[in-house]
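tokens incoming
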């Protein structure tokens, strides 16, 4: 009897599944289409100020009992005044957590770990930051440590020597990296050795060796100041709970010495004609390719059309460059393009690491796609690119750290308060005519710089046969300068 009941139940289940399956059979004749981008509702940014004038931007997020605090300074490597100081911003921020107030680097690390927090300091081209992530219950204990790091760094000589040796070692390692060599050579060719964008963020062997504690103290005093900074606070706090704690730790901070003058990077002319630069790396299994020229600043009014155009060209896995060089031909693990938008115009770059024996073929396909993007974009491809950007955009606001970074971007580049709430609308408003216009303005393959790092004896004949333009041979020392010695 039990067996008959089980068989009957099984039969009824199969019949029900069959009926449901017949009613809900998926349509496999075409891929599913994405729906319209959902509305993005961002929490309000509440703006306050400490007694010393230091601005505070605060966002309440009460889902998780953590808080992210970032002290953002509007100075970075672009503020280094002369080539002799290139790398000072990177070194200075690296030193902040290596001795501050009454604590040594190890004591700072131990105190932060005990609180279950993360504390670090970094610098970029246009800004620097000290960032704290901490359980909200420990915020009152962590803020004084963060304040010491931001306001009272000690720049101990032994820690500087240790960081110096690490940097010189990384510089030696970079000379062995074809990818790093190609990227740095590309920037140096475009901007020149005296422009800040033409030298690596960490500086050169000569500047790294020249830094002293006094050098870094002077650069710190001219840039890390309450009149050049903003506190961004995101997490399980309110203004009433957070402002007294922030005032206690940062309200007494005062500027020391004169402020650094506003950076004035020299204007740089675009290349007049396409030139190819080859750098020999004997025996390299891959050739690293960089193609492009000087792009646009973050303030460009063409931001949204460029974003869509570059997504089609090389800004996504399904972009034209990657589908061609990787999926169709198998020359590379990945090909891409990007516009590095800074306060001043950063580089526009198309890049890939390709098989050595397919270097010339890869260059040919690169230029096929660079020329192809100048033509009208099909409607379905345009729609896919816009949806790719729009549907991914909310993911940039998932955590306290994510939101803090977006607010840093808004602060540094002086974006309007409603910028992110209108971002998806700006993307979806881009037309095919907009894409073609910015492509023809900002993608001019006949004037691009081409850099290839690889096994010269293998790749040079094929590249010359392409007749892309004049060819110049560079050495590793042309890119990095003489190899550094790492001993003290």
């Amino acid at each position: 009897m039990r067996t008959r009941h089980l068989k009957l139940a099984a039969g009824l289940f199969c019949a029900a599944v069959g009926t449901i399956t017949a009613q809900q059979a998926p349509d496999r004749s075409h891929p599913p289409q994405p729906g319209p981008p959902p509305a993005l509702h961002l929490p309000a940014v509440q703006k306050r100020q400490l007694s010393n004038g230091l601005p505070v931007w605060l966002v309440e997020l009460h889902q998780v009992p953590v808080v992210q605090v970032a002290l953002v300074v509007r100075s970075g490597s672009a503020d280094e005044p002369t080539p002799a100081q290139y790398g000072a911003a990177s070194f200075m921020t690296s030193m902040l957590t290596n001795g501050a107030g009454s604590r040594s680097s190890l004591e700072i690390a131990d105190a932060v770990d005990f609180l279950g927090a993360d504390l670090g300091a970094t610098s970029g081209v246009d800004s620097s930051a000290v960032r704290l992530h901490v359980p909200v219950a420990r915020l009152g204990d962590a803020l004084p440590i963060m304040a010491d790091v931001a306001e009272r760094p000690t720049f101990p000589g032994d820690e500087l020597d240790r960081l110096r040796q690490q940097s010189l070692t990384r510089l030696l390692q970079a000379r062995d990296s074809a990818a790093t060599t190609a990227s740095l050579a590309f920037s140096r060719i475009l901007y020149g050795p005296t422009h800040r964008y033409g030298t690596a963020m960490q500086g050169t062997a000569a500047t790294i060796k020249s830094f002293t504690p006094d050098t870094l103290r002077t650069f710190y005093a001219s840039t890390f100041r309450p009149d050049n900074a903003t506190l961004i606070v995101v997490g399980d706090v309110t203004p009433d709970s957070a402002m007294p704690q922030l005032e206690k730790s940062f309200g007494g901070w005062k500027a020391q010495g004169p402020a650094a003058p506003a950076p004035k990077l020299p204007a740089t002319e675009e290349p007049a004609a396409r030139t190819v630069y080859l750098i020999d790396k004997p025996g390299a299994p891959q050739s690293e390719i960089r193609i492009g020229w000087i792009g646009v600043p973050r303030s460009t009014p063409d931001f949204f059309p460029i974003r869509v155009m570059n997504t089609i060209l090389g800004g996504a896995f399904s972009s034209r460059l990657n589908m061609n060089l990787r999926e169709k031909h198998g020359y590379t693990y990945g090909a891409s393009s990007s516009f590095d938008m800074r306060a001043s115009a950063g580089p526009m770059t198309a890049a890939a690491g390709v098989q050595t024996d397919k270097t010339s073929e890869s260059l040919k396909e690169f230029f096929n796609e660079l020329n192809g993007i100048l033509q009208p974009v099909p409607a379905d491809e345009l729609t896919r690119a816009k949806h790719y950007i729009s549907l991914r955009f909310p993911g940039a606001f998932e955590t306290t750290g994510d939101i803090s970074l977006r607010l840093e971007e808004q602060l540094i580049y002086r974006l309007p308060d409603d910028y992110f709430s209108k971002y998806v609308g700006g993307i979806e408003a881009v037309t095919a005519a907009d894409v073609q216009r910015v492509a023809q303005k900002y993608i001019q393959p006949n004037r691009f710089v081409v850099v290839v790092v690889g096994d010269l004896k293998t790749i040079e004949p094929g590249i010359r046969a392409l007749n892309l333009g004049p060819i110049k041979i560079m050495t590793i020392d042309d890119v990095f300068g003489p190899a550094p010695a790492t001993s003290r």
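note: Residues 44 and 383 are 30 Å apart (CA to CA).
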